[in-house]
Each structure stands twice: as C-alpha cells, then as structure tokens.
Amino acid sequence: MLMNKNIMITLVLVLVSFVWAGSFIIVQVTTEEMDPIDLGFLRFLVATPLMILLVILRKKPLLLPKKELPWLIILGLTGVTLLYLFQFLGIHFTNAPTASVLINTNVIFIAILSTLFLHETLSRKKIAGIALSFIGVFVIMFSDISKQALTVDNLFFIGSVLMLLSAFCWALYSFVGKRLLKTYDEFVITVYAFGLGTLFYLPFVVMHLGPVLQQTSLNGWFAVLYLALICTLFGYLGWYYALKHFDASKAAVFLNLIPLFTILISFFLGATLTWFFLLGAILILYGVYLTQRSS
Q1: Residue 108 to residues 33, 137, 171: CA-CA distances in angstroms?
Q2: Of all residues in the chain, what percent are helix, strand and coil, respectively (each to 5)?
Q3: How confident is the model over 10-64, as pLDDT tens digits?
Q4: How many helices (H) and strands (E) does the chain have?
Q5: For the chain, which residues make up each domain, given as ranges?
Q6: If you ran DSSP here, which 8-state letter would residue 153 be given?
Q7: Residue 25 contacts by C-beta under 8 Å, 6 or more apart in sequence?
Q8: pTM for the whole structure
C-alpha cells in the first residue's frame, strides 16, 4: 500500500515537472505575439481569484497578523511580480531550453543565502556544486543556442541575466516563505503572494490593460489558461500534495526534470541544441545535484 502511494506521488511530481516544463515552451511561443509583461499579469489575474476560492473551500482563515505584512509584500514581489517580469522577459530574449536551465540556479542562490544568513556551513561538495553551476551559467550566457560558437549576443545576454535575477527572486521567495510556512497554511501564504504580486503588477500594465484584454488572440487566451489553471493551480496543488508525503529535499530533486523535459520538447519541436549549450546545461544540472545532495 505504501509502495503504491509512493508511486502515485512520484507520478504526480513527474507530471508537475512536465507541466512546468511546458510553460517555458508556451511562454516562448506566446510572447512572439503578446508582451511578456502582459502575459505574466493575465496569468495571475486569472489564477488569483481561483486560488482564493480554493482556500475558502478548504475553510482556512484568510486573515493574518499585521506584523507579517512586510514579509507578505516581499513574497508578492519575489514570488510573482519580479519573478515573472524577469522570467517571461528572459524567456522572450533567450529561448525555452536556456531559460529552464538557468532558472534551476535558484538552488545555488538558496545555498548561498543559507550560508550568509543562516550560517550553514559550505561543504566541499556544495562549493564544487556552486562553482560548476556558475561555470555552466557563463558557458550558456555567452553561447547563442542557434550558433556553434561562443558569441556575445546583447539580447541573449540580457535575457540570461534576467533569468538569473528570476532564479534569485525564487530563492528569496523560498527563503522568506520557509519562515512563514512554519506558522501558517501554505495555501493562505500563496493567496497573499498571488494577490499582492498581482497588485504590484498593475503599474506595468494599467495604462494599456483595456487594449490588452480586447486584442489578446484565442491562442493567447489558451496560453493564459494553461499557465493559470494547469501550471499554477494544478502545479501548486500537486507540489503541496507531494510535500505533505515526501521530504522537501526529495521532492526538490524532481524539479531537475523541468529543464530536461523542456530540452526534449524543444528538440522534438525542431530546436537546434548546440554543444556549448549542452555542456553548460550539464555543468549547471550536475552542480545543482551536488548542492542538493550536500544539503
């Protein structure tokens, strides 16, 4: 019975990873016709009310103490607004495989933050993992996926930097969220992050929100629904379900499947993967693996 449950949880984690990998492809394709910032806003404009409804159905109290407001604001900025501003623009300026690999460096940033603020010791294995990952980042950032030689492509380079900033935001979100999750329900915390994050998105879209809603194509709305319903609601539900039955460190290993799935999907859709990109991806993923293993 336990084995069957473990198999089911494993399947859920694999499916969540596959769904999240698909988001990189969807964003890359959709941002060819829609502004990346608008796409990020519409995702959470749809997802946030549904997440609030989910919390109400679970009969969880929504009100939190005022003292937590500064932390909740940080969660909204790092877990939604800045995270997806950087990420969707980063995907638009690079490509899905590159973005999915670079976002995985959040594990490296978490390890660095833990060392700086929680005084966790850096083992040799963790130092090696961090070093390998940043070498891999350097290789990818100066290697255009469409060429067989190292290049300095301004937009590609800027997109890579944006993806690293997105990874750092996710690390901060995880770091701050870990403190709040010790006291409060994970879905309630997520509702506040979504709600405040969507609110902070408004200055970037408010001047042209009407035309965006009117001019978004059917394919654009399908992309928004995929990101809001499949990636956000199903993804978070599946992730939290797994965390209740698996150690966080075990569950986190499955996130390494996201870049692998993204690379495979992109390859089957006709993307050209250079040797420099594959070398950088291997260095980053192995560095992340070493860092996780030593945690």
Answers
A1: 33, 11, 8
A2: 85, 0, 15
A3: 898 889 999 999 999 999 999 998 999 999 999 999 999 999 998 999 888 888 9
A4: 15, 0
A5: 2-294
A6: -
A7: 96, 262, 265, 266, 269
A8: 0.87
